[in-house]
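Incident review: delayed structure delivery

Summary: a single-chain prediction request sat in the queue longer than the usual turnaround. Root cause was a stuck worker, restarted by the on-call engineer. No data loss occurred. The affected request and its eventual output are reproduced below so the record is complete for anyone auditing the incident later.

Affected input:
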Amino acid sequence: MAAAPVLDAARLLDDPHLAATATFAHLDQPEVGPFTTPVMPIDLSSTPARIRGPAPTLGQHNRQVLEADLGIDSDRFRALIQAGVVADEPPA
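Output delivered after worker restart:
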């Protein structure tokens, strides 16, 4: 019968085996600071998972998606912001 310690979240980050297997990545998250996150637990040879950077902030890609990718013009984009349909910060 196999057995292993059950670690709380804080002790997981200090576990030598998890450190040796690169289970966590350390990022600098804007507006938060240094952040540790788990990486993909499986390794795919044709499409390996990788962390390209921190998670986007709220609304960070609104303009790119709506204007460049979906073809919404700048006037319509501003109208969506003014109507509260699109936001780049949480409501007050």
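Verification: The chain has a mean pLDDT of 88.
Action items: add queue-age alerting; document worker restart procedure.
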